[in-house]
Amino acid sequence: MGEGCYWNWYKTYIEHDRGINNYFGLYGTLFHETIEKLMKNELFEWDIKQEITTGMRNFEFKAPFPAMGKSYEESIHRFFDDGSYEQIFSQYKVLESEEEKIFDVGNVKVKGFPDLVANHDKYGFVIADYKTAKKYEGDKLDHNLMQLYLYSIPIKEKYGKYPDHLVYIFPREKGQKEFAYPFEIEKLERTKEWVIDTVAKIEQHTDWKPRCEMVDGKRDFFANQLCNSRCNCIYK
């Protein structure tokens, strides 16, 4: 959503202007939809290769660099061809997938679609998410995990308990692709505070400083090439 750019957040979630997509957004959607179809028996293993090839051929946007596009295409095929998909998902007993959740955090209304809620052979009751980026680490991991902590709110309401673990699956990683993080109630409370504080800052903010101007003295790649508001940002 343009982390650090309140203007893009305001456009997307207050004005409901989602702007335009990009190659990586389309790629992530294709991966999610392929998984969902497999789980619902709407797609079978012998159809996966053609499904992905056709899907990527019809992308409205191309990768920023040809070599990058080739790498991404090879990695998604590899995930389904080399046994990674079967090995990982054989451990899950699926309870729900991509179901809409609408819930409150303080006076903030939140909507989301958890990729997967399941019982895992090793990690117990989990909320899992598929990410086609590189594996998150450090501050980026802590920041992005807040999404799964938010999903734990409606999941607790439905199932009567919080998850044992929050799980990320990174299909483009070589080697280990599945990473589990123990659920901590303190981090959920900090996430709630962050949401309330962030929305308050956005609603009160008047001096917008968009991320696309400069980040550490350099033009920001995401904001200038991938941001969904990149073509209609009045501050750029």
TrEMBL record:
<keyword id="KW-0547">Nucleotide-binding</keyword>
<dbReference type="GO" id="GO:0005524">
    <property type="term" value="F:ATP binding"/>
</dbReference>
<protein>
    <submittedName>
        <fullName>PD-(D/E)XK nuclease family protein</fullName>
    </submittedName>
</protein>
<keyword id="KW-0378">Hydrolase</keyword>
<dbReference type="GO" id="GO:0004386">
    <property type="term" value="F:helicase activity"/>
</dbReference>
<dbReference type="InterPro" id="IPR011604">
    <property type="entry name" value="PDDEXK-like_dom_sf"/>
</dbReference>
<keyword id="KW-0347">Helicase</keyword>
<keyword id="KW-0238">DNA-binding</keyword>
<keyword id="KW-0227">DNA damage</keyword>
<dbReference type="GO" id="GO:0016787">
    <property type="term" value="F:hydrolase activity"/>
</dbReference>
<dbReference type="Pfam" id="PF12705">
    <property type="entry name" value="PDDEXK_1"/>
</dbReference>
<dbReference type="GO" id="GO:0003677">
    <property type="term" value="F:DNA binding"/>
</dbReference>
<keyword id="KW-0234">DNA repair</keyword>
<dbReference type="InterPro" id="IPR038726">
    <property type="entry name" value="PDDEXK_AddAB-type"/>
</dbReference>
<dbReference type="GO" id="GO:0006281">
    <property type="term" value="P:DNA repair"/>
</dbReference>
<feature type="domain" description="PD-(D/E)XK endonuclease-like">
    <location>
        <begin position="5"/>
        <end position="208"/>
    </location>
</feature>
<keyword id="KW-0067">ATP-binding</keyword>
